[in-house]
TrEMBL record:
GO cellular component, one term: cell outer membrane
Localisation: Cell outer membrane
Every Outer membrane protein beta-barrel domain range: 384-787
Domain of life: Bacteria
PANTHER family recorded: PLUG DOMAIN-CONTAINING PROTEIN (PTHR40980), TONB-DEPENDENT RECEPTOR-LIKE BETA-BARREL DOMAIN-CONTAINING PROTEIN (PTHR40980:SF4)
Entry keyword annotation includes Signal: yes
Signal peptide: 1-22
Name this polypeptide is given: TonB-dependent Receptor Plug Domain
Organism listed in the record: Cyclobacterium xiamenense
Amino acid sequence: MNFTRYIFTTAFFFLLGLSHLAAQEQSAAVTGSVRDEADASVPFANVLLLEAATGDLVTGAVTDEAGNFLLTTPYPQELILGISSIGFESFRSQPFRLNPGTKKDFGSLRLESEMAGLDEVTVNAARPNVLIQADKTVVTVEGTVMAEGNNALDVIGRSPGVFVDADGNIQLNGRTGLIVLIDDRQTYMSAADLANFLRAMPADNIRSIEVIQNPPAKYDAEGAAGVINLVLKKNNFNGTNGNVHAGSQFNGLHTPSAGATLNIKQNKWTSNASLNYNQWGRFTDLEILRRFQLENGLSAFDQNARLKLLRNNLFFSGGTEYQINDRHSLGINLQASGQKGAEDGNSLTAISNPDNTDLNYLNALNDSESDNARIFGNFHYTGKLDTLGTKISADIDYTRMDAGSLSMLDNRYWQNENTSQGSSDRIRTGNEMDYSIFTAKVDFTKPLGAEKELETGLKGSWVRSDNLLDISKSTEEGPFVPDPNSNHFIYRENVLAAYVSYKTPLTEKLALQAGLRAEYAAIEGNSVTRSEINTQEYLDLFPSAYLQQQVSDDYQIVYNVNRRITRPYYRQLNPFVFYIDPLTTEEGNPDLQPQYANNLEMNHILKNAYQFSLSFSQTENAFGQIMVQDEENRKTSIQMQNLDRTQNLSLRAVVPVEFAEWYSSSNMLQLNGNTFQSQLGEELLDEKQFSFMVRSQHNVLLPKGFKLELVGIYRSPFRDGQLVINGMSWVDAGITKTFYEDKLSLTVNGSDIFRTMKFKGNIDFDRINTDVQQYNSMQSVRFTLRWKFAQGEQFKVSQRSGSTEERNRLE
């Protein structure tokens, strides 16, 4: 391992020093002049080049005394030209693309006089709520009504093709095994930890969500189903701005929230900080009916439970960046989050016997507390090595998380109506966990002329996780005795990766991007308690290819293929046994293997807004949560296992509709065909399932400055391994009103308005016959009051959802 680390470190710094390879060439240019209605020049107008997909500032300038402007940029991406000047309506161009060494002349651009005198001129980098690009789907979050008062997990669940279940597990196109990035950086969390972290992150911190079903070689191969990247807000203009907010939600529980954000850009320094507090809580009503086929007849467990969960979340995010000069910058980012929660549950299970004479009861009272703290630090460098776009970037990250929980499960047993007689026992479970992650990566990009580009990079990650599970039991009022299922587990993982990617035009209408990523993984799981050590070591290759066909200016077809992996979470490899109740346990699986997916996709894109895609994926060793029943003792265990093979065929259509200047919608229809094949014990799981999902979002600008958003989602019945889940639907809505020249806003959001987001499912496989019904108090109303302040430049980039055309605010 020391040798591979030495090789990696040497290569890392060698690649970081490649700046002498960059050639000094001419950049692309944008020129024009700005005139008023009388054809007089408009001097000192603000002229901006913005990324069409994200609204990020690329470069800016002001017109000279004759109204002329000249902008140079190495960007080969789609851009938008925005112009603003005091007393005039702002201008925004249609998206256009610049190639290295070319020049685009806009000629004379005429600005119309603004009817109402405004203290601030806005350049509206407006874009659709959903923007379709060749390699990803970009969903606007900033400036939308639904972002107010919601958390990151809420807005992820409203993205096209994404489904978030009641426990916070995320699916993309009906598939599990994706990863969530924050500003292109991995979070390295289990599904449960990630869900809690995203619930603590306010949606207002997010600018946009990138849904990448088949990522190119630059991205980690982790995430068999794809990648969701959260792009956080940044400040691009000199001055100071920020906001403070407070709110409250009611879903049976009152949960407050408050926070503040501050952005400062002064010359070469850009800094931001946000601090947010919120409470997150819910009631869960759970019904489970389990049937055991015994030798002498049928026994049924009819369980009804109500759980209350309340969690306090504190989330800090901050960063600063120093622009050394026009080409080089350094920066640091920090995130810190803390959570403290309490959960109590009351479960009553009626147990019938085959002879139908006596009825046994189990009453389980669960009282638990948990807390965790996470800190993340990042240092990054970006260097533009010439004016054509040659650049190098490096990141060093460190993450540390400490978590602990303590639960007490009090169980009482009695027969028939004799509640005063019977027996009792207690199960006490303590769980202490910490992990640390160190990662380093470097990326190098070199344009080779004529729209050709070479990318290459290295990355290394080192993970250590320490988990101590302490279980003890007592009968009646006796002392607690250590349980043999207690376990101390230490996990280590080292992944070293290298990639190369090449992009080139094949013809005037065809372009190819091909890449190869190699990842070496060394994994060790050490059960200290059991004196068992499991090791895995493997080198995998992950090819990817994109073929882009530009049929016309507004229509392109993208074909792509890639191979990806999902490695087990640290906790899943821990051979623990966790008691949900005396008759139900969750178990780890030290033999769990990574799952591999081969993906194909054909994507039709019209006007960067309409999408029709057909994709196919085959996953080997697919993860599946498997239920196993012990008929003799009438106990149930749940464990993540590898399924032999799953296949997914998906057809998706995204169709925006512009009904009027003040009313637009974004609509999605997705069809899925899934197959599951695996030998589970003595039985063969061989099932096929067709399902579909419909999503429709409506954005309405109302008189008097009101904005309304409505989202409706329906998902048909679908299968997840053994489990068949009934169809479900829900409707969310939000309305906002601004006051005091848009400085103060009041937003009201309603979730699951008709209380229809209910989970119902059934397992009927082998000798298992179980029905499940669950509702998590998703119906809620939320109020958010926000005050914005700004001091500095008199223009801003405003990103609004719903329309491809710039709109004035209705009075």
